[in-house]
Each structure stands twice: as C-alpha cells, then as structure tokens.
Amino acid sequence: MPLEIDQAVEHIQHLDLFEIRGRDNDQRKILRIVGKHFPAKVVSVESVKKYLEKYIFPELEEEPFSIVYFNARVEKKENFPGISALKSINDAIPVKVRNNLQAVYFVHPGLHSRLFLATFGRFILTGGLYGKFKYISWLTYLRQHVRRNQIEIPEFVQDHDRHLELRPTIEYCLEIEHPRPRCSLIQSDSAFDVYSMRCIA
C-alpha cells in the first residue's frame, strides 16, 4: 500500500537513494542514485517527483552535473518503478536541470537493463537524456570519470563488482562493453545501440 505523499517524501529523505556530493573528473557535481534503495512498493511517482522538486532539483539548477546510478540488485518486483513512472519523472525534470546534466554513468548494467533501454530508452528518456548515458561495467572503469574519494560506493555494490570478476568469459561478452582478457567486443557509438561481439577461444 503506497504511503501518503507527504509521508512518502519523508520516507525517501531517510533512504540512501539520492545524494548530491563530490565532483567528477570534470569538476561537475555528482548526483548519486542507488537503485536498490528505491521503495517501489510504498511510494508513488508523484511522491518521488515532489521529493526531487523539493530537495534535489534546486541544487542542480546553477551548474553542470553528472549522475552516477548504481544498478546492482535492482529487481523488477522490488525496486523498479516501471516504464510509466520513469517517463513521468523524466518529463518532470526542469529545463535548467536537464540542460545542466552532462552525463549519466550507469554502473553494472545487466543484459536485461541493456535490452530494456535499447527498446524503450528513446521513448522514456526524452529531451536529450537518452544520449547522455554511458555504461560502466566495472567499478575500475568508473575511476576514469570519478575519483574514489569523490563518491561513496555501497558495500553491496562492491560485492557485486567482485562477483562479476569471477563470472565466465562468455557472460562478460553477453553483458559488458568494456573488454576483458580473452574477449573482444565490436562496439557501436551509442551506449544503447545493438552491438556485435566476438569471443576468442
């Protein structure tokens, strides 16, 4: 049962879901979003928009910023808001904030999230947002954009990253764009375009 809007806004405020802190390597503010903490079962999209309008958007109107989104342990039934909710939140982003957003670093995208965004991304992420997404398959590659001391990475995200290091090479080929040893990928220019792949035995 969803909470009342005011209750939901207060609830979101106490979660480790949204945080503005630190700078990326281009000295832009960072909005960190931890997908696992999205309380999809108890808050409405209107509550999320009200929270963003009150606490987040005002902090992002005056200068460029980037988003670091941690996708680890996001599950459809537990913490995924749904297509219509994502579209509604996207449409609620003020023009000044949208123009200031320079990059969205999508950390640990799985095959399902890649396929979802390849299918629905251009419909949901309008106003130029779609083209600002960059897949980050391992935390090692996040360091190319954000220094370690500029962002707090949840322990479960670090655990997930270590787990990915142990997965078979063929799974890397199916789910990542950053090449690892014994696997080479032919990448496209867009993060969401369909790409070819080739594993070397």
CATH topology: Phosphatidylinositol Transfer Protein Sec14p
CATH class reads: Alpha Beta
Please give the count of helices: 9
Give the termini separation. Answer: 51 Å
Principal-axes geometry comes out as globular
Number of domains: 1
Question: So what's the oligomer here?
Answer: single chain
Kindly report the name of the CATH homologous superfamily.
CRAL-TRIO lipid binding domain
Output the helix-strand order.
HEEHEHHHEHEHHHEE
For the largest sheet, list the strands in their spatial order. Answer: 1-2-3-4-5
What report would you give on this structure?
- The chain is globular, with a radius of gyration of 17 Å.
- Helix content is 38%, strand content 18%.
- It has 201 residues and is α/β, with parallel strands linked by helices.
- It is built from 9 helices and 7 strands, in the order αββαβαααβαβαααββ.
- A hairpin with a 5-residue loop joins β1 and β2 (29-34).
- α1 (5-13) crosses α2 and α2 packs parallel to α4 (83-92).
- The strands form 2 sheets. Strands 1-2-3-4-5 form a 5-stranded mixed sheet. A two-stranded antiparallel sheet has the order 6-7.
- It has one domain (5-153): Phosphatidylinositol Transfer Protein Sec14p, CATH 3.40.525.10.
Element layout with pairings:
Elements (H helix, E strand, L loop, with lengths): L4 H9 L4 E6 L5 E6 L10 H12 L8 E6 L5 H4 L3 H10 L2 H6 E7 L3 H14 L8 E4 L2 H4 L12 H11 L3 H7 L7 E4 L9 E4 L2
Parallel strand pairs: 2-3, 3-4, 4-5
Antiparallel strand pairs: 1-2, 6-7
Helix pairs in contact: 1-2, 2-4
Organism: Coffea arabica (Arabian coffee)
Protein name: CRAL-TRIO domain-containing protein
Pfam family, one: CRAL_TRIO_2
